[in-house]
Amino acid sequence: MGVIVVEVMPKPEILDPQGKAISTALPRLGFEGFTGVRQGKRFELTVDGEVTPEHLDAAAKAAESLLSNPIIEDVISVRELGGEA
Question: EC no. (predicted)?
Fold first, then answer.
């Protein structure tokens, strides 16, 4: 079973209220040194068998047309999940 990861982020010019809330909470919780936070979305698409170039192409098309709102979001990456957790 293969897994494809799609990462989507708000466009830089779009306000990110969730990221702002996290950014203001970090110092209150003792996490210093961060100057900003942007919150995005991560999707994991599972396929039977190995991930093929055709799967990656289909995932990229789905990312652009279904998993993201192209007016306010950018698709950052579409990749096969490797040995990471």
Answer: 6.3.5.3
